[in-house]
């Protein structure tokens, strides 16, 4: 009797090879790589508006202090990103700020993407890889898809916008490719919940896409109802336990009132800034619809005899119309963004389109048009992010570290030698010419429209914060006092984090007085009036800081203004005045 025997070792080897070459294994390796880099003392080059990342430390410090985002302090976006950041900073206290802020969302997107890959991989490992690779590219490289400054540097701004785009990627991939009913319902409900608590405009964009999937018949009524029930149940549970949801909606309405008049200009701006991808996507949609016009017409006519609803759903469930729907959602989301990974969530749709490209072999011109336009949609953002990462990180090999004593991980940055020279000059120039910048502020002007993007401004700001920490400690030691609550009349407030103190309740983080700080009421004014030390940066004075002072000055009438050091003034609470006068 002849039998074929496969040695156990060979069988084990083949199974091991199958697992280690699977999309899920690659996702796991990427996650472990992220954790490893966060555990190492990594420094990155300074970038435009780098101080945006300090908002996360302000929020984390408040969370560790027992404050609840939304309930206890006003936030420019939803609370999820801040809670995720706080959790990752707890696990990786020495992590580089720009990296941990960007990668913190992997705690949500990686498990959800794993569910997508598991479902798709059962049918085609190749399609699963095609969905995973673009996701990992943008999830791992912390860069926006458009440049805001001519010099290469780290993108520490637009972080929550990038995170929303990655979450929308998971949503689109699920809606297009997931077939398992329970997985699809779970993915829709979880991604929409995450989007709601990340940023409301991301939730609106996701809602547009999910609604289109429903009308196109990709999501059955029962599935949609189940997902809606889960979403509502989560919100109800959070609301009943903390009241956060209603407070969040109230804050959203405040922001809408502040920014409502800018929606139409921003819609046009969003389209123009992303004109390349908008044009390529629109053209691809037109080509697909034109090539299938007869089939669409015939199918609609045939389905209409059975059911108008079926006919409409079948018509809408066309890749050309899907492209337009997702494109519209993307343009809508970008209306409120300075930086993001715009339209990366079109990639799953492009994968679906390319899978059907073989049907166009009889139409070579159409096939070439589809392939060329598909490449024009997905390749430029990917190549641009890779190029920016390469320029920033390779160029930083010859950079100089920032000299600092008190910044900790906030000082894990470096800069070009010419930037370091300019910083040395400006640290001396600003105090000596303060009146010049005060006059500019009184005229409603910044020294340059790109002041906050200039690398030297960001380094100068951090250097001044470093010195101010020493000045606060010296003042406390000399006068025998201790300032427990610290506030800054500035966009960011890193002092409570750096000094292990508290930030006052109810005061907005990410304090942009033009867009994200509602007019203070009695609650906010009482909190400011009770703050021990309110810091005012003066190197240089700026229009935004002047606006913040105007907002809160009525609450500071009992405080005494002193010169803390060459680049910081401070308002001291009356309870400390006796000690100061000694």
Structure keywords:
single chain, 582 residues, mainly alpha, four-stranded mixed sheet, three-stranded mixed sheet, 26 helices, elongated
Describe the structure in your own words.
This protein is mainly alpha-helical and 582 residues long. Helices cover 63% and strands 4% of the residues. It has 26 helices and seven strands. It has helices at 8-20, 23-39, 54-64, 80-91, 97-103, 106-121, 125-140, 159-177, 181-198, 200-215, 221-242, 244-259, 263-273, 275-291, 293-306, 308-316, 319-334, 347-355, 364-395, 417-432, 434-442, 455-479, 495-499, 522-529, 543-552, 577-581; strands at residues 44-45, 400-401, 413-415, 486-488, 533-537, 560-565, 568-572. The strands form two sheets. A four-stranded mixed sheet has the order 4-5-7-6. A hairpin with a 2-residue loop joins strand 6 (560-565) and strand 7 (568-572). Helix 6 (106-121) runs antiparallel to helix 7 (125-140). The radius of gyration is 27 Å and the shape is elongated.
